[in-house]
Amino acid sequence: MEDILRIGGREIKNRLFIGTGKFSSYNVMKLALEASNAEIVTVALRRVDEASKTENILDYIPKRCILAANTSGARNADEAVRIARLAKAAGCGNWVKIEVIQDNKYLLPDNLETVKATETLAKEGFIVLPYMSPDLSMARRLVDAGAAAVMPLGSPIGSNRGFKTRELVEILISEIKIPVIVDAGLGAPSSACECMEAGCAAVLVNTAIAIAEDPVVMAKAFSDAVKAGRMAYVSGIPRSEKNARASSPLTGFLRNE
Amino acid sequence: MVIKINGRAESVEKSSTIIELVSKRGLSAEKIVIEHNLRIVPTEEWSGIALKENDNIEIVSFVGGG
User: Fold this and answer.
1) How far away is chain B from the Cα of A14, in angstroms, using its nearest Cα?
2) How far apart are the CA of A83 and the nearest CA of chain B, in angstroms?
3) Does domain A12-235 have CATH number 3.20.20.70?
4) Which A residues in the span 36-55 are in contact with B, Cβ-Cβ below 8 Å?
5) How far apart are CA B17 and CA B48, in angstroms?
6) ipTM, 2 decimals?
7) Residue B11 domain-assigned?
8) What is the pTM of this model?
9) Does the annotation count A97 as an active-site position?
10) Does the distance separating the beta carbons of B7 and A56 come in below 8 Å?
11) Which of A55, A60, A61, A56 is nearest to A38 (CA)?
12) Structural domain spans, chain A
């Protein structure tokens, strides 16, 4: 049976979501997106810089991808809502990753403002994916506010520190009925695999792919790791034991007893 | 007259329209969104809106982001 992730009425096969920041060029980004076969791709919205009349990033994102605009730069719910509406008008569709951040050192999200923005945008028909600190009460509020998934951080954005929030995220996975997607901080495919083995519905990776020496091969590596982790989770990972359990039969030994 | 474009005060000809502003800057319509005094303006309205003193214009487009 095919293993499908359902979000916002869409059927998603690839559980690796990719962010498009920090790539050395749009071409490299395009090749990485193709190599990974990613279906969900995030972009950001910024003031047009007059000096640089650059190309349109959307031309470099495969047409099959679902775009989710992030609201990076928003410091409160109102700003996030404003950015989401602009992104929709710019042709991004109605998927939005809410990111409300006031803390510049750790880039940790403001969960309360995130809930407010989620409520407003979900009512307007957006498919809302809120970036959050893994907190069960807030995750429940996000569900009530109409979020399509919750996206707890693995570790601070761009830190490449891995799945440091595992125990808290596991609580969300066990208690929250909507998909739990780890976003941020996953620095290596092994971390992405770990998230999937723990039962996450998907992961979102940007920095670790974009700044790798070979982003195209790294994108494929992440994609394979996510698949492996998911397959392991679905197959039922055996629990760990304190003592050894022989894998070979314990009878028929070649000895005189 | 002076209006604010992307947070910076700039001098433009009196009653310029949004479409004049866009073409003067060499921007292509399909990759940008315009917000006029906090209201998103659909492309088809760009030629019909004459700007006034102290108006606030935001011109935004997509960039890479995670």
Assistant:
1) 17
2) 10
3) yes
4) 42-48, 50, 53
5) 7
6) 0.90
7) yes
8) 0.90
9) yes
10) no
11) A61
12) 12-235
